[in-house]
């Protein structure tokens, strides 16, 4: 018997469910507000997620360059930016892997 994690999330009390919030380093929301007025599909949510990961990679590069130039003396700030970008990218890769696995499973289905 397989347990669906998404089904378990729906069973959690409202106080234990997570919500998407803007990252503390930027005021940019995780999902584009202008698209929420329209019906956002899975592709829009995925595109916003990819844009956010890209933005974190850019911030990491900027923070690293500022650290190497001596503008930032706190190594902690640079390491936090690097780890945030790394974790986001790893999560994006896992989402891609699960999507590809689901696609392959659908393609294996016999009609």
Question: How would you describe the overall organization of this protein?
Answer:
66% of the residues lie in helices and 0% in strands. The protein has a domain at 40-111. It has helices at residues 5-11, 33-36, 42-69, 75-108. With 111 residues, it is mostly helical. Residues 5-10 and 15-23 have low confidence and may be disordered. The protein contains four helices and no strands.
Layout of strands and helices, then pairs:
Layout: H1 5-11, H2 33-36, H3 42-69, H4 75-108
Helix pairs in contact: 3-4
Shape: elongated
Residue share in β-strands = under 5%
Helix count from the secondary structure assignment: 4
Query: How is the main sheet built?
Result: none
Radius of gyration of CA atoms, rounded to a whole number:
18 Å
Describe the structure in brief.
This protein has 111 residues and is mainly alpha-helical. It has a domain of 72 residues. The protein is 66% helix and 0% strand.
For this entry, give a set of tags.
single chain, 111 residues, mainly alpha, 66% helix
């Amino acid at each position: 018997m397989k347990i669906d994690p998404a089904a378990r999330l729906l069973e959690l009390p409202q106080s234990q469910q997570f919500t998407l919030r803007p990252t503390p380093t930027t005021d940019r929301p995780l999902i584009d507000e202008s698209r929420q007025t329209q019906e956002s599909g899975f592709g829009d949510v995925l595109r916003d997620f990819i844009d956010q990961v890209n933005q974190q990679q850019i911030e990491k590069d900027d923070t690293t360059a500022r650290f190497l130039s001596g503008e930032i003396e706190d190594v902690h700030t640079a390491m936090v930016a690097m780890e945030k970008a790394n974790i986001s990218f790893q999560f994006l890769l896992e989402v891609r892997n699960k999507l590809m696995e689901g696609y392959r499973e659908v393609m294996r289905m016999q009609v």
